[in-house]
Amino acid sequence: MEGVITKFRTEPYPSSCELARPLSGRYNEFTLPSDTQIKMSKTPAPIRGDRAVYERAISAVPGDLSVGADGGPGCPSSTFQASIDALTAAQREKMNGRTWHEGCPVPLDDLVSIHLNYVGFDDAVHGGVLVVHRKLAKETVEIFGELFAIGFQIERMQPYEDFPVGEIGASNGAVGFNCRPAEDNPKIFSSHAYGISVDINEMTNPYHDPSIGWSPAGSNGDRNRSAPGLLTADSEAVKIFMRHGWIWDGLLDPPDYQHFGKITLGAEDNPLQRPVWATQLQPAPK
Ligand SMILES: [Zn+2]
């Protein structure tokens, strides 16, 4: 089955495996030729783990997404590719007791593992894994496809459970799901516990804790500097998220420059149960 997408554009990169840095800024406008097609394959990948779980995940999402051609033999793909998979048995085991436990607001069956490629700080294309709620899987792929298309750099992309407790911030990665209390209110769950938010480059984009300052320790909150993967209110990356209805917490006070979260509206405490899901946010007028 094939369908037409209108959301993002990729083009084959030069023949080498590495991305040319000048790609940044080349894709400010996301116009897509109407004949561009996206493959939406429902052919199951090899079943890993419980078949029912896999089928449940795949029914919520369009299947494997890929745009453009693969890289040559021995090269990572030079165009954006992503697949949305149920959590494997091994992943579940790793998460259980670390990033997920009984009492967490989202069952493991409702989470998916997105395998996607991204542009690293070395300008090469790398493969990463993001765990999010299955309801957001498709738009998360679209967002990261658009980040890839503008050459936005991410230092690494591995789930929380791959790191010792407390050490992920220093790894400067992009991460999604983690069942933990909110930083500013230990009585409620963080939006990460619902799988509806993503942190990007935590050291480059720290959050400000009024009592201890910039966190993680050693990070630099200055936004008037140049650094790979730095997020500011004018970043195209921020606009990409907002166009999908995600807010950037760098706009809040105190700021959390690494944090993007899906906005849902309604009276329910659980953000996943609210009736209105933002499809687009506009930057505030200056
Ligand atoms: Zn966060």
Structure description:
- By secondary structure, the protein is of the alpha+beta class.
- The chain has one domain (2-277).
- The chain is 15% helix and 23% strand.
- The strands form five sheets. A six-stranded antiparallel beta sheet has the order 1-2-3-4-5-6. The protein has a four-stranded antiparallel beta sheet with strand order 7-10-14-13. It has a two-stranded antiparallel sheet with strand order 8-9.
- A hairpin with a 2-residue loop joins strand 8 (181-182) and strand 9.
- The radius of gyration is 18 Å and the shape is globular.
- The model is unreliable at 1-76 (pLDDT under 50).
- Bound molecules: zinc ion.
- The site of zinc ion has 4 residues, from strand 10.
Write the layout of secondary structure elements.
Layout: E1 2-4, E2 37-41, H1 51-60, E3 64-66, E4 81-86, H2 89-95, E5 111-119, E6 125-133, H3 137-149, H4 168-171, E7 174-175, E8 181-182, E9 185-189, E10 197-200, E11 207-209, E12 213-215, H5 236-243, E13 246-248, E14 259-262, E15 264-265, E16 276-277
Antiparallel strand pairs: 1-2, 2-3, 3-4, 4-5, 5-6, 7-10, 8-9, 10-14, 11-12, 13-14, 15-16
Residues 192, 197, 199, 259 line the site of zinc ion (ZN).
